[in-house]
UniProtKB/TrEMBL annotation:
<dbReference type="Pfam" id="PF01522">
    <property type="entry name" value="Polysacc_deac_1"/>
</dbReference>
<dbReference type="InterPro" id="IPR011330">
    <property type="entry name" value="Glyco_hydro/deAcase_b/a-brl"/>
</dbReference>
<dbReference type="InterPro" id="IPR003343">
    <property type="entry name" value="Big_2"/>
</dbReference>
<protein>
    <submittedName>
        <fullName>Polysaccharide deacetylase family protein</fullName>
    </submittedName>
</protein>
<keyword id="KW-0378">Hydrolase</keyword>
<dbReference type="InterPro" id="IPR008964">
    <property type="entry name" value="Invasin/intimin_cell_adhesion"/>
</dbReference>
<keyword id="KW-0732">Signal</keyword>
<dbReference type="Pfam" id="PF02368">
    <property type="entry name" value="Big_2"/>
</dbReference>
<dbReference type="InterPro" id="IPR002509">
    <property type="entry name" value="NODB_dom"/>
</dbReference>
<feature type="signal peptide">
    <location>
        <begin position="1"/>
        <end position="25"/>
    </location>
</feature>
<feature type="domain" description="NodB homology">
    <location>
        <begin position="153"/>
        <end position="326"/>
    </location>
</feature>
<keyword id="KW-0479">Metal-binding</keyword>
<dbReference type="InterPro" id="IPR050248">
    <property type="entry name" value="Polysacc_deacetylase_ArnD"/>
</dbReference>
Length: 349
């Protein structure tokens, strides 16, 4: 009887030992997906999350599972690589559904290279490469982005007259290179291309207005100009959730009335590639490479397949030469220049 009791006791002890070993192993596996420098959890107000993260080897605290209810099923980021210079800040966009408001946190693997704040704004600190993680508060799901702090030349390539049947190919190619552009869309084409516009916007591209009918605004009455702007605003908002952030008047044609009615900044261009006239892939490619420079605003049209293909052909070379293609608004922000509604801007030197 005594022997049997001792045997049972031994087996129970062994069972507890095995169970706790498995639990610890699980905890370690879970914490292994969290970057080492997770003491830099920025946005959390939840101490359970912070303490669990900071001391992954402390079993007493590790055993305290976060009480956060995991409701976010998937997180994705708009970029897999973010390139920026020292002291510059660029935003990452996290895409996820969070109806029950679990919330997300941002973490930099190495904050001495690049730090990230609770809004997903990454700031370059010194040259190097690191990763930024975006995770649900329960840490059940996460996404990461490689961050390269280097010496990049920011430039904006803009596309007018779309969306068109060629826009999707362009949006995909921009994503492949983690580049962004500003699309000045013609309002009347938007509704039929809602999904590509939304995808483009989610990838971090900027949507500007190029009027509703591609009208020469200077030959219209005040009320007709207003209608061109308002109709475009409304279709863009229904496609992407926000109004166009910039205006490029068709033909670059504007006057005081147009300026007065424009409730966002107006953008001209510093390089006219004449891609609409020379519909040849190699011509467009060479024009882009020839004119590429820091602070330029290059004009192209995604209504022509030759322009889209010429641009795609130029992408690997632009990348190799250290160009970082950003939206027009980001270009000005990176250069610490403010944009005022109703004012026309030609470049960002
Ligand atoms: Zn146009």
């Amino acid at each position: 009887m005594k022997k049997k009791f001792l045997k049972t006791l031994c087996l129970t002890a062994l069972g507890i030992f095995i169970c706790s070993t498995i639990t610890m192993a699980e905890e370690i596996t879970t914490s292994a997906v969290i970057p080492e420098t997770s003491t830099t959890v920025i946005s959390t107000t939840d101490t359970t999350v912070a303490s669990t993260t900071n001391t992954p080897t402390d079993t007493t605290i590790v055993k305290k599972k976060p009480k956060i209810k995991s409701t976010i099923k998937k997180i994705s980021l708009n970029k897999t690589v973010l390139r920026l210079n020292k002291k510059d800040s660029r935003s990452l966009k996290a895409l996820y559904t969070d109806k029950k408001k679990e919330g997300i946190i941002w973490v930099s693997k190495n904050p001495s290279i690049a730090k990230v704040n609770k809004k997903g704004i990454v700031t370059g600190k010194k040259k190097g490469t690191t990763y930024v993680y975006c995770m649900s508060k329960s840490k059940k799901v996460k996404a990461k982005c490689k961050v390269v702090v280097g010496n990049f030349k920011y430039m904006a390539v803009t596309f007018d007259d779309g969306p068109s049947p060629y826009t999707k190919k362009l949006v995909d190619s921009l994503k492949k290179y983690n580049y962004n552009s500003t699309f000045f869309v013609v309002g009347q084409y938007v509704t039929a291309k809602k999904s590509v516009l939304k995808e483009s916007f989610n990838n971090g591209n900027e949507i500007g207005s190029h009027s509703y009918d591609h009208a020469k605004l200077t030959s219209l009455s005040e009320s007709d100009i207003k209608s061109e702007f308002n109709k475009t605003k409304s279709v863009v908002k229904s496609a992407i959730g926000i109004y166009p952030t910039l205006i490029r008047p068709p033909y670059g044609s504007f006057n005081d009335t147009v300026s007065k009615l424009a409730d966002v900044p107006m953008i001209y261009w510093s390089v006219d590639t004449l891609d609409w006239k020379n519909r040849n892939v190699n011509y467009v490619y060479k024009e882009i490479i020839k004119s590429a420079d820091k602070g330029e605003i290059i004009l192209l049209h995604d209504s022509h397949p030759t322009s889209v293909d010429g641009f795609i052909k130029a992408l690997p070379e632009l990348n190799k030469k250290g160009y970082e293609l950003v939206t027009v608004s980001e270009l000005f922000k990176l250069n610490k220049k403010n944009l005022k509604p109703g004012t026309m801007y030609y470049n960002c030197y």
